[in-house]
Design brief:
235 residues, binds cytidine-5'-monophosphate, 8-stranded parallel beta barrel, alpha/beta, 11 helices
């Protein structure tokens, strides 16, 4: 979106008023707002209108759908009317479920979650997905894109390998972003916004470095300014 940095601000707010306030402060500077499970389950579809306001900001519905294809299709259809730009589905739900989401929400970019970054190789072993984590990420990325996903969530460290696997047309979305010197909070493997974009990410998910700042609008503006030389499409 021209004039706005390729950032999805994670609105992980305790209540709707706070989410709407953050949204108002950051939308002049960023392309996208990310609504997660907590906010959506507490307030329902209304949350989308509350944070979108009158702006043209893109909505990223991070609902991480994972169910049988018919249920994923029905759920995707139910949220498609909210006109999200992005909707997440777990790649492990399988080809038919991803295809069902893509067909049911044609106006949204279905984004597949490969392996949650909270899982390590020992966890994967326990759920019957033993082997190198990067193999699982690559396998699920290829499966998801083959099934119609047009975006993938991956850690900044996986971007290059995933990009090599899926080509240039898939939107790669990376959380775990921290500006140099910022608090890592609970994120173990972080990259700066510049590093992630240089590695090939298209959209950076950033939460607390913006929303916990004394002035979230100024924090978003500063990160957006730091990226301007890397994103020529910005106005
Ligand atoms: O505050 P912070 O920048 O760490 O927020 C990151 C956001 O990205 C949160 O909404 C978190 O749930 C989400 N996320 C993540 N790691 C993933 C997938 C999503 O941190 N692998």
């Amino acid at each position: 979106m021209s004039g706005h940095a390729p950032i999805a601000v994670a609105l992980d707010a305790p209540d709707l008023e706070t989410a709407a306030r953050w949204a108002g402060l950051v939308t002049p500077h960023v392309s996208t707002l990310k609504i997660g499970l907590e906010l959506y389950l507490r307030y329902g579809p209304e949350v989308v209108a509350s944070v979108r306001g009158a702006s043209g900001v893109q909505i990223f519905l991070d609902l991480k759908l994972h169910d049988i294809p018919a249920t994923v299709a029905a759920a995707s259809r139910a949220v498609a009317r909210l006109r999200p730009a992005f909707l997440t589905v777990h790649a492990a739900a399988g080809t038919a479920a991803i295809r069902a989401a893509a067909d049911a929400a044609p106006g949204a970019r279905v984004v597949a979650v490969t392996v949650l970054t909270s899982l390590g190789e020992a966890d994967l072993e326990r759920i019957g997905m033993g082997g190198p984590l990067s193999d699982a990420v690559r396998r699920l990325a290829v499966l998801a894109v083959g099934a119609g996903a047009r975006g993938l969530v991956c850690s900044p460290r996986e971007v290059a390998v995933v990009r090599a696997e899926v080509g240039p047309d898939v939107t790669l979305i990376t959380p775990g972003i921290r500006p140099a010197g910022a608090d890592a909070h609970d994120q173990a493997r972080t990259a700066t916004p510049e590093e992630a974009l240089r590695a090939g990410a298209d959209l950076l998910v950033i939460g607390r470095p913006i929303t916990s700042a004394p002035d979230p609008g100024a924090a978003a503006a500063a990160i957006a300014a730091s990226l301007r030389h890397l994103t020529p499409a910005q106005g």
